[in-house]
């Protein structure tokens, strides 16, 4: 059941450095953005461009730096999880709809129990509405494509792989899902993120590569952020 005969065991140093890269890039990019927002005159009139730039730089920078680091440590992308796709991916035709129902059902249950509801007019919607077509497309690409790529590489590649080597598949699924949910940190969305994390990790286990969870992640983010383009082109 090995994913690759060349798969190398992920060390604690690799795990911690990967986490440091991810957190460090986020802190640097958002820190610079805050500094620009506080010091550059007139930037508030173009805050939508600043936010979109931050999203694009943070997501692409994290993906590039994580990939370079893992390669330098001797971990091939095929061993991390980006191995050759197989016909087994056809199961995604039912797995993705099932995952959609699971995550939406989890969040609707929270709304029913708490009496709350979806938040409309969010800052993301406002940014999309104020941005031009090019900016909206860049934002869509960052959220729907680049972010799923680096998150799968980190959460279902590095973290899942590290835990699986030590606790097995069950431990990898549960712990990686919990870490994924906590890192997204919005209390009202925690059940949604836990359910999504479990679905992504289960796909990682079932397909024995990152293509399954990546397909779900891209599909979900694309569906959720389609409103960004709709707000501009409608």
TrEMBL record:
Pfam families: Rce1-like. The keyword ATP-binding does not apply. Residues 134-222 form the CAAX prenyl protease 2/Lysostaphin resistance protein A-like domain. One of its GO terms (biological process) is CAAX-box protein maturation. Keywords: Membrane, Transmembrane, Transmembrane helix. It comes from the Bacteria. The chain crosses the membrane at residues 21-43, 49-70, 91-114, 134-155, 167-190, 210-233. One of its GO terms (molecular function) is endopeptidase activity. InterPro entries: CAAX_protease, Rce1/LyrA-like_dom. The keyword Transmembrane helix applies. This is CAAX prenyl protease 2/Lysostaphin resistance protein A-like domain-containing protein. It comes from Brevibacterium marinum.
């Amino acid at each position: 059941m090995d994913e690759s005969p060349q798969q190398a065991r992920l060390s604690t140093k690799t795990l911690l450095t990967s986490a440091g890269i991810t957190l460090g890039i986020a802190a640097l990019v958002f820190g610079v953005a805050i500094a620009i927002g506080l010091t550059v005159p007139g930037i508030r009139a173009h805050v939508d461009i600043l936010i979109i730039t931050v999203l694009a730089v943070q997501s692409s920078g994290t993906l590039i730096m994580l990939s370079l680091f893992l390669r330098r440590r001797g971990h091939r992308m095929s061993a991390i999880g980006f191995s050759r796709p197989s016909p087994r991916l056809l199961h995604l035709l039912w797995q993705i709809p099932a995952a959609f129902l699971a995550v939406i059902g989890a969040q609707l249950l929270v709304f029913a129990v708490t009496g709350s509801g979806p938040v409309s007019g969010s800052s993301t919607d406002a940014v999309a509405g104020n941005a031009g077509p090019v900016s909206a497309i860049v934002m869509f690409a960052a959220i729907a494509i680049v972010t799923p790529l680096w998150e799968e590489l980190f959460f279902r590649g590095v973290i899942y792989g590290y835990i699986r080597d030590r606790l097995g598949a069950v431990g990898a699924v549960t712990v990686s899902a919990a870490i994924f949910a906590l890192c997204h940190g919005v209390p009202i969305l925690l059940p949604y993120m836990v359910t999504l994390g479990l679905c992504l990790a289960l796909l990682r286990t079932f397909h024995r590569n990152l293509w399954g969870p990546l397909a779900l992640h891209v599909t979900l983010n694309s569906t959720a952020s389609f409103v960004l383009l709709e707000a501009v082109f409608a």
